[in-house]
Amino acid sequence: MTRIVAVLASLLRGLLQAALIVMLTFFLCRVMPGDVVDVLGLEGGLTAEQQAAMRHSLGLDRPLPLQFADWVGHALTGDFGRSIRFDRPVGEMLGAALPVTAKLAALSFCLGVALALLLAIAATARPSRWLDAAIDLVNTWSIAVPTFCAGVAAILVFSIWLGWLPVIGGLLVPVLVVGLDNAGQIVKPLGEELREAVLLPHVRTARAKGLSPWRTAFAHVLPAAMPVVLALSGLVLGGLVAGSLTMEVLFALPGLGSLTLNAIHGRDYPIILAAVTLIAVALVAINTIVDMLHRLIDPRVS
Amino acid sequence: MRPILEIADLDIAIAGRRVVRDLSLSIAPGETMALIGESGSGKSMTAAAVMGLLPRGARIAEHSRLRFDGVPLSPEDEVAMRPLRGRAMSMVFQDPMSCLNPFMVVAGQIDEALQRLGAGNGGQRRARMLELLGLVELPDPAVLARRYPHELSGGQQQRVMLAMALAAEPRLLIADEPTSALDATVQAEILGLLKSLQRKLGNALLFITHDLAAAAQLAHRIVVMRAGRVVEYGPAAVVLGDPREEYTRKLVSTRRMLAAPPPGRPEARAVDPALRIEGLVHDYPARRLFGRPFRSLHGVSLTIAPGETLGILGESGSGKSTLARLAIGLARSGAGEIALFGTSIAQRARLDRALRRRCQIIFQNPYGALNPRLTIEAAMREPLELLGLSGRDDRVRIEAALVDVGLGGEHLARYPHQLSGGQRQRVCIARALLSDPELLICDEIVSALDATVQMQVIAMLKALQAKRGFAMMFVGHDIEIVRWVSDRIAVMHRGRIVEQGPAAAIVTAPQAPYTQMLMAATLGSVAWPVPAGTSKGCDFECPIPGIEPMSGGGANARSLRPIKDEDVLSHATAAAVDGEDAA
């Protein structure tokens, strides 16, 4: 009971934050110099009268708070409007883009966490210089090499020199690049945490029971390090939104990142707002899930 | 009969420092051997070596020979040791709370030990698990098995540890201070259980303890260790009853210091009471949405005059530590008045520097009170800087403060983990006294320490008080110690002061029913294994004639019997002056 209330409270906090983010985005969009009609006007050579008429028909000349209230009202019923630029329902466009991004983010996240866990656990169970060196390498790589550099390099190596993979549209290379980056971000703190966890008294008890090193690691050391793993995972997931954006642009993946970026360039307000809302809600959901998992893993947290 | 465990010339070194030297002993099947010593004596290291659980960096010398049931042991070979652990030998540790996996229910943890034996399917293992929980006399095993460790009491946790250790019916059980983290009454239960289980299962027991009464109750033979060496070795009754070595005699008679009052009261430095508390109320906030807050203090009133020591006596959960924290402004009170040196602090969010300088607090756990990443010098420099007392001569002052508490300049560059518990608490005391406070609040400061160290620390504290004249609030649960240290005592029970008065009166003629009960319970467990015989060092009377060492009762024997002053103080002062062994 207490747990449910606590989870609900954190969910509510998150939703409030999401709402604030969306509101901020709405007003920031309008602060940007030039609006969607300017962009279309430049491209289509519209006269000032035509532009004014267009603004009026789109409702862009009404007071901002009113427009926002309007948008919120529609959004709450699930209607995110139509793209001004493409004149297609925003929902449909997001629906097409979302799976690409979700797949990219999920795969690179899984790869990253799995790789980091594997390295950290192996280094803790069987300490060796080689593993430590590998961990340092991955960590330094992710600090020193931005994903867009790594992405370009990967295109050069895999697609152009080796000719193994198509340059455009393939998920494998971006997943490798982002996954490695994620692994590098968390492998070091994870290793430290595990190294401290193996010295915990209950781990000594496990050894005194004669359990195998692997059993000790997975059943006794890892749960103790799990809160940190979760916290780091949440951090990485948050960063993935930005990370997948560059990858999508670089590899021409028709995902949420590309869509949003193009919408920002074209001042396509409905798409920007819908995409930001989606991302904010997704992050709130992730945070809530992390919070719930934490409570699930550690019975002492009420 | 072939010994189950045979240790010859055991030498263990950590980073070049020898922590165990030339230790030899053997345990016969079914025998109980007690390994007695203070912290840092190497007793736990010896046990860890037998199990192959030595910490990283510990090395066993080449010439050391360990044999288990005639077969040579190689404790540094993980692969060779693992088959033995949890089968032929197993171990129970000191602090059951942290030694059980907090993320796993009891059933899972015991099942692991059973799975490892490789016998039986799930159902059989479950039956065996319940049988084991019954064996350690836990009520309602099926319900308990589903609980997490933090949902059990300390005694229950230790029983679960025992059940786990006994899963394989090991031939050797090593118990490393199995009762020292538990309340006095629970200690007695666990010791009784260890004894009866051993009778039932016939395992040999290597029992590591600093508690002589516990050793007397359980052990057939005793090994007394000091600074890694064996000091004395022999049948329990002989070693405890008629110790040959000076050190053992000191151990046996350590609490006798408490029979005589400490050196005189210091002169008062001020007129205002150091601390005045009136009608203090404190609530812990409700943990559930609609829960009620827990009231930990119900209108507590007390006064501490300058230079006076007020003892706060109570069981765990009586609110005594909360009181200590409130008194120094570390927590906010619900209602009531707190005045430090005449200045009201009840409504303040924090104390200003001037007040902070005049009152200091020392906590129970010296392990947690020192930042493990700071050297002693850095840890002691901190309050000087925070209180605005820092100057050019910091290092000199810190060194002088360390000398005051029986340490020295050689400790400045050390880290907390390189010091013993007693030394750490001395550092905490030195740190608290750096600002020359007028009120020192001591929250159970000796309860985490060995008995002889306890005596040394409180003797030192009283000597410092006599010299410097600070007032003290001495919070504790050990009647004798609180009585010895305090001028007056306030007895706390469930957030209330049930009785308050001169120390001697509270102990000898308690008025409140609760105090009477407390005193009676303590008196009931008198039994030091001291013979009526007249060996050379035995210059005190036997507490109760006719009590035999082996049958001697309580785990936590604490004599409140008035002992004549002249009987005593030779050892006590010696202990206080000696200080601990430099680690």
TrEMBL record, chain A:
Gene Ontology CC terms, in alphabetical order: plasma membrane
Q: Which residues cross the membrane?
A: 104-125, 137-164, 217-242, 271-290
Family named by the database record: Belongs to the binding-protein-dependent transport system permease family.
Chief location: membrane
* Keywords per UniProt: Cell membrane, Membrane, Transmembrane, Transmembrane helix, Transport
Q: Would I find Cell inner membrane among this entry's keywords?
A: no
* Record's keyword annotation contains ATP-binding: no
Specify the protein name.
Peptide/nickel transport system permease protein
Q: Where in the cell is it found?
A: Cell membrane
Q: Any idea where the ABC transmembrane type-1 domain is?
A: 98-290
Q: Which InterPro entries match?
A: BPD_transp_1_N, MetI-like, MetI-like_sf
| Organism of origin | Bosea thiooxidans
Which GO terms of type biological process are on file?
transmembrane transport
Per its UniProt record, what Gene3D superfamilies does this chain match?
MetI-like
- List the membrane topology term(s): Multi-pass membrane protein
From TrEMBL, chain B:
Query: In its keyword annotation, does this UniProt entry include Nucleotide-binding?
Result: yes
Query: What does the UniProt entry say about where the protein is found?
Result: Cell inner membrane
Q: Which CDD domains match?
A: ABC_NikE_OppD_transporters
Any one GO molecular function term: ATP binding
GO biological process terms, alphabetically, are:
peptide transport; transmembrane transport
Instruction: Fetch the Gene3D superfamilies from UniProt.
Output: P-loop containing nucleotide triphosphate hydrolases
Any Pfam family the entry gives: ABC_tran
Q: Secretion signal: which residues?
A: none
The domain of life is: Bacteria
Per the record, membrane topology reads: Peripheral membrane protein
What's in the GO CC field?
plasma membrane
- Keyword Protease assigned: no
Keywords on record: ATP-binding, Nucleotide-binding, Transport
Could you tell me which residue ranges the ABC transporter domain spans?
5-252, 275-519
Q: Which NCBIfam families match?
A: PRK10419.1 (NF007739), PRK11308.1 (NF008453)
Similarity field: Belongs to the ABC transporter superfamily.
Q: What is this protein called?
A: Peptide/nickel transport system ATP-binding protein
Q: Which organism is it from?
A: Bosea thiooxidans
